Amino acid sequence: MRTVIFDLDGTLADTSADLIEGANACFREMGAGDLLDPVADALTAFHGGRAMLRLGLSRLGQTGEEAVERWFPIFLNAYEEGIDRETRLYPGAVEAVEALRAAGFATGICTNKPAGLAELLMRRLGVRDLFASLVGADTLPVRKPDPAPYHLSVREAGGLSDRSVLIGDTETDRLTARAAGVPSVLVTFGPEGAGIARLSPEALLDRYADLPGLVEGLLPR
What's the mean pLDDT in 42-57? Predict the structure, then answer.
């Protein structure tokens, strides 16, 4: 079965504001106030909690991973409390996934968000049933860009990797697709915008309405 695997943060949904609020909650608890900006630091948000903590701590002149690891569980708790306050699916995402499924494609998610949080968010957004698989950062001992989570997400969706494509928004997704030996489609509506073309994916996606036709071209019958 032909299979389309989606990244979550920055690809299916704009989660940056809620992610940054989770990190800023940690910085406020430190007494430092809000160190991250929801707009200027959105790209860092899509690289995960540790990346945001690292950036904020660097602005306090702190380096090293000890503080990052100490605050990471606190970040996860803060983020979970407000996981869907500002998060929204990108326009047309639901319709595109529904069109793919109607055309006989299997769909799944492979994310570097912890699986429990990803499951919670997808349920809160009312779209969990659109995806036959969901593999998170902690589902396996490794995470993207290691190809193992991607291959697992394809298998659990009922597909074969050599008949699959990865939809993402960052260099991590591009590297994952390359390691898995599959084509990648990178969205241009994330924080990097059209600049994501620098990664030379097999295709760029400007709007979700174009995805079904684009995927048909990459994975012909």
Answer: 93
